[in-house]
Amino acid sequence: MTPFRIFQPSSITTDCDRCGGRVDLLKGGVCRTCRRILCYSHLHGSWLRRLLADMRNESVCVECRGPRRSDLTGATVDENAR
């Protein structure tokens, strides 16, 4: 009989839209603003930001939180100029 494993690593992965690296969907996820699938470092940036995202139930990536970000075509968009 196999023991019940609660805290085992996820076997579901995909590629990060920013760096192309493998993304564990339990650590990374989808940005609410730009809708890209991102790894942990590009989505949250730090453990404190991940904690805040988990508590607020909203994930906004590092680029969308900043004053300048890239749009879906890769062009840089200045949020203050809009």
- Helix and strand succession? EEEEHHHEE
* Strand percentage: 15-25%
Mean pLDDT, to the nearest integer, reads 77
Q: Number of DSSP strands?
A: 6
Biggest sheet features: 2 strands, antiparallel
Question: In terms of per-residue confidence, which ranges show pLDDT below 50 for 5 or more consecutive residues?
Answer: none
Helix content: 10-25%
Radius of gyration computed on alpha carbons: 15 Å
Number of helices: 3
Helix-and-strand structural type: alpha+beta
Spatial sequence of strands, sheet with the most strands: 1-2
* N-to-C CA distance: 61 Å
Shape: globular
Structure characterization notes:
The structure is a single chain. The chain has 82 residues and is α+β, with helices and mostly antiparallel strands. It is 22% helix and 20% strand. It has helices spanning 40-43, 47-56, 62-65, and strands at 13-15, 22-24, 29-30, 37-38, 68-70, 76-78. A hairpin with a 6-residue loop joins strand 3 and strand 4. The termini are far apart. The model has no long low-confidence stretch (mean pLDDT 77).
Summarize the structure.
This protein has 82 residues and is of the alpha+beta class.
Task: Considering the chains and any ligands shown, give keywords for the structure.
82 residues; alpha+beta; two-stranded antiparallel sheet; two-stranded antiparallel ribbon; 3 helices; 22% helix; globular
